Amino acid sequence: MKRFLLPLVAISLLFVSCASSPTQSAADNGPTQENLDQAFEEVYNHFDHVLIMEGAKEYQVKSGDTLSSIAKEFYGKDNGYYFPLIMLASSQTILDPDKIEPGMALTVPNLEKNLNDTSAHQNMKKFFQEIADVYKTKKTATATKTRDELLKIASML
Q1: pLDDT confidence of 138, banded at 50, 70, 90?
Q2: What is the dihedral of CA 20, 26, 27, 31, to 10 degrees?
Q3: Strand, coil or helix: what is 107?
Q4: 126 CB-contact burial (10 Å; exposed 0-12 / middle 13-18 / buried 19+)
């Protein structure tokens, strides 16, 4: 009986180990899109109504657009990483900045007005820090660079 029990236990452990590997691998690859959307939504809800929307412009996404390219168009070529402001102002339309599609109507807040308003300015600093934390969970080289740039902006605000 002992001769059969040891191999049976070994095979059972191997089966359990193999069955749990995909779950571990999925966790190593980062969160699901649903988890990311939820994390973005939580940050948006926390910072809802902190931006000055006076002077905001509407923009319809075209093929080939990114939120960074839209931010550069409205805020200047060196300000592409200010795209989270567009995300926040357009949170009813889009959650994840990597998921914009042609035809979406976005709201682009006036950067200068928000930087010049003390309350909005302070909230922007906190907002950029929290959005950077969401990017930390994405675990890609692009997300890491974005996170670093968002933290750099937060430290300058």
Answers
A1: confident
A2: -150
A3: strand
A4: middle
Amino acid occupying residue 87: M
Quick one: tokens of 75? Answer: 């805020």
Pairwise CA distance, residues 39 & 22, whole Å = 23
> Does 148 score more than 70 pLDDT?
yes
Would you give the DSSP letter of residue 47? T
Residue 18 confidence (pLDDT) above 50 = no
The separation between CA 15 and the C-alpha centre of its own chain, rounded to angstroms, equals 37
Question: How far is the C-alpha of 39 from the C-alpha of 24, rounded, in Å?
Answer: 21
Q: How confident is the model at residue 156 (pLDDT cuts 50, 70, 90)?
A: very high
Is 102:61 a contact under the CB 8 Å cutoff? Answer: yes
Distance CA 117, CA 133 (A): 24
Place of tokens 């926040």: 88
Nearest CA-CA partner of 84 in 31, 141, 94:
94
Q: What average pLDDT does this structure show over 113-128?
A: 93
For every residue of 48-104, DSSP letters joined together read TT-S--TT-EEEE--TT--HHHHHHHHH-TT-GGGHHHHHHHTTTT-SSGGG--TT-
